[in-house]
Amino acid sequence: MSHHLVRLFLLLSSVAIDASSALHSDPFTAGVGLNIDCGGTSNFTSEFGRPWVADGYYSGGAVGLVAEPHHFRLPQERTLRLFPPVSAGKKNCYSVPLPPGRYYLRTFTVYDNYDSKLRTPSFDVSFEGTLVFTWRSPWPEAAARSGAYADFIAAVPDGDADLCFCSIATDPPVIASVEVAAIHPLAYGAASTGVDLILVNYGRLTAGSSLFGPGFTNDSDAFSRVWQPDAYFRRRDVPVKALSTGGHQILGANQAPNYFPVKLYETAVTTVNSADALVYLLPPVDTHLDYMVWFHFAEIDSGVTMAGQRVFDVLIGGENATRIDIYKEVGGFIAFKWHYIVENLTSTPLVVKLVPVVGKPIICGLENYARCALGSCHVMAMQALKESLQIPDRMGWHGDPCAPSTWDSWEGVTCHHSDNGQNLVVTQLDLSSNQLTGSIPDSLGSSNLKVILLNNNQLDGQVPEKLYSIGVHGGIIEVK
Ligand SMILES: *[C@@H]1O[C@H](CO)[C@@H](O)[C@H](O)[C@H]1NC(C)=O
Ligand SMILES: *[C@@H]1O[C@H](CO)[C@@H](O)[C@H](O)[C@H]1NC(C)=O
Ligand SMILES: *[C@@H]1O[C@H](CO)[C@@H](O)[C@H](O)[C@H]1NC(C)=O
Ligand SMILES: *[C@@H]1O[C@H](CO)[C@@H](O)[C@H](O)[C@H]1NC(C)=O
């Protein structure tokens, strides 16, 4: 028992030192970032001046190479790290030490038949214990062959970013690169919603331009965001025209806290026929989540010289969300952004419509983020319990305790939807008669547990006082 306490203490004190040194410089201002070439053996600088480091920060797995390296233009896309099922628990993670702050994280996931089995794996990716990406076999053809980038924005509260890969089938999770860049702590509405929401990218589009962003072009973006062309998400039967500023300067972009790049506002798309609405179908979404949709506009047509000449309504999921008159808001050649939270979505995909009122609608860019509440409270409490009680490997306590039950699940752990219905939380714990030793950590008391059965083990130490509140609230607790 005592050596656990000592280890825990050392862990806490080293975190405290990291945190105090980080307080002196905000990671965004300091330009903290790291690009990991998973499976790669050497450091290199890309053709766009981006530094990449050889594979590291993983705690298990093996190295692989895509089947057709010539098919991949960027070196970091060719080498892989895979996590065979024998890897357990923390071994399925990348744990990157980072000063506490908010970060943009991008992964590149690719299969390309590296194992000659013609079978894409099924796995989940979690960040700090919250599910962010789900990869299910069979992958879409394009992703299986060419791979897919996926990104999200999240806070790293504790000085360690844990990106974990949990297999739900026999084929090992596979990852080709992990990119991390610090962002402004108040970016994307955090001043009103707090920093705890994870924003998972479901589309970050530039209208009238081709793909751009650090790592892919020489264009800069303060957060390393990559912007993809809108055409794929736009309804094809509406004829559109691409516009560009033609060198005219755009003001009001690249400002705190979001630092949207100037280039985003230098191009736009508008309709050809004045009666047409511009329609975007954003990728399939989970109706249980809330979405944050950002709209980017700039009046870049020098023919529009006063308010009232271009007016359109924004319909989101069929509801009229706002009326936009860019010139009235900011004038010409100035970035104008607006965002909206979509709650209680009833159908997928999310449909965004720009309906003309006067003139033709125009748009420069669109972003859609799923807002995931940081579900890590239960995960951290359970990790602490796992350490304290020396839970044996046979009980399968790996990854997220509330992951789908088809996983090699956490024996003795039962999850239910939380009161707000948004995430799964641990509600029951039956660890009776498991020859467990150690003590019960305090953190367990702040969880959603309603039933705890720990009898018939060799536990020592005190039962944390907080745990008794479970009994007080009508729950069940059996320890001795
Ligand atoms: C890559 O660079 C990092 C520092 O950024 C260094 O610690 C590491 O040793 C280098 N690795 C190789 C393989 O050169
Ligand atoms: C990107 O910019 C760097 C530095 O200015 C330059 O050396 C490089 O050639 C550019 N790459 C491309 C592909 O334009
Ligand atoms: C849509 O909503 C805006 C304000 O939110 C309003 O000004 C406009 O008239 C509405 N459009 C329609 C067609 O009702
Ligand atoms: C969404 O549903 C919740 C719970 O049913 C409700 O409290 C909330 O007001 C709804 N939000 C909107 C925008 O309708």
UniProtKB/TrEMBL annotation:
Record's protein name: Di-glucose binding within endoplasmic reticulum
Domain Malectin-like intervals: 36-370
Main location: membrane
Keywords, alphabetical: Signal
InterPro entries documented for this protein: Leu-rich_rpt, LRR_dom_sf, Malectin-like_Carb-bd_dom
SUPFAM superfamilies reported for this sequence: L domain-like
Membrane topology: Single-pass membrane protein
Pfam families xref list: LRR_1, Malectin_like
Signal peptide coordinates: 1-22
One GO location term (cellular component): membrane
Compartment list: Membrane
